[in-house]
Amino acid sequence: MAPTFPHPVSASFFDREPERSGGILAWTRSFMHRLGGAIAASRRAQAEREIARFIESQGGRLTDEVEREISRRFGSPAL
Question: Domain residue spans in the chain?
Fold first, then answer.
């Protein structure tokens, strides 16, 4: 026996195909994109804090030697 639904909206919810261009798939894609961006921003901010702490520990001045040491320790190229 087929289930009966008290409201036609409920029945149409169960009868329809999943949406491919929107709906949960689009939401999931958007969420993952935002999550990845937030993780990258967090890591970038942490690296900037570590570099700032290192510069302060070296006297607070960004010299050629300090810049080379930052490049060596943190992996960013000194220009």
Answer: 39-79
